[in-house]
Amino acid sequence: MFLKKKPMWGKKTKLKSSYDVVIIGGGLHSLATAYFLAKEHGITDIAIIEKNYIGFGGAGRNTAIVRANQRTQYNVPLYKEALDLWPVLTKDLDYNLMFNNCGNLNLMHSEAAMKAARMTIATAQFHGVESHLIDAKEAKELVPALNISEDITFPIHGAMFHPPGGVVRHDAVVWGLARGAAKKGVEIHQQTEALGIGTQNGKVTSVTTSRGVINTKQVLISAGGYSAALIYDMLGIKLPISVLTIQAMVTQPLKPVLDHVVSSGAYHCYANQTLKGEIATGAHMDPWPNYTTLNTAHYIKHQAEALSEFLPCLRGVRFMRIWGGLADMTPDMAPIMEGNNHVEGFFMDCGWGYFGFKSCSAVGKYMAEYMATDVCPDMLKPFALKRYQEHKLMGETAELVSYSPDN
Questions:
Q1: Between 72 and 348, the higher pLDDT residue
Q2: Which of 278, 312, 329 is the endpoint of a domain?
Q3: By Cβ atoms counted within 10 A, which residue in 189, 280, 334, 345 is the most buried?
Q4: Predicted confidence band at 162 (pLDDT cuts at 50, 70, 90)?
Q5: What is the number of domains present in the chain?
Q6: Are residues 320 and 176 in the same domain?
Q7: What DSSP designation does 274 have?
Q8: Beta bridge partners of 324
Q9: The pTM is what?
């Protein structure tokens, strides 16, 4: 006899015909927003609608790195608060999120990169984020396995060391937030596809799903790489977003060799060692827009070559698993968050690229405040869509991705 398992976040509920709030997407931003709506604002009549299962997208397809060493005055405070919230959430959810602030080491490979790092560090320190510029020898003291010789493609000149950064177990965050939200009355409906948003007189009235129509006055779309297509299909709003594949992989388990997260912009490579001893490593996103999560031999070769140069102790180590996820990239590599501007009662939270995981705790808090009060929090105001019309791009990166308005 087989026992029917119930979700770890509580008893499965029937989909009702109406809710105060419907959230489309079962990822971390959706779960965090629902949790804070219930916890901080007493709004519990919420349905999270997910086509597949919670954590299906970027929430379950990342390398679990968290940090607050962004470049701009608008991004740094948001990511700092997100970083500060991990131990708070661990306690409030009564769930071990496995937060480890092991520190983040960003390698610099030229004097120009060192100068740019000084600007980034100054911005971080101005906002109260600990960050230091160190030379190559100091970097090797932190990570003895580093190759700081001159006979590699991109010799290491120094590094930006960000001690508060680290890693959080991404699936634990999914389960912890799901359980925390469900305990407060939020309903999570998996295998339920959102098909359309109904409007009347410029206001949200309903959401059509594969299981029927839900009446509601507020809708949030926060569906990662699928957000831009959903928003365009359902409401005709075009967003400057390109969807790109980003790949990652892990090696066989090893004895402890990396005490910190190590990344290199020149090599387009980052790595950290998991609790199981695996080296989790990722790179830059694929350069062409697509919706595939397939993996490529080119990427495996790239990671092997890059890691073998600046961490030569990994030569000969076997890669065991590889996966791909979708990064919804904006031209300035900063997200789009706003509500009520196109249709009353409609909110969007998208365009996170590969920064979505590390931001979810703070974004959930502020998006919940936005939806509960209909007043945009100061923290989110710089991330409105109109910045593109006003030519006020964030400047988070100099590498602007190309996009088509019809994507």
A1: 348
A2: 329
A3: 334
A4: very high
A5: 2
A6: no
A7: -
A8: 247
A9: 0.94
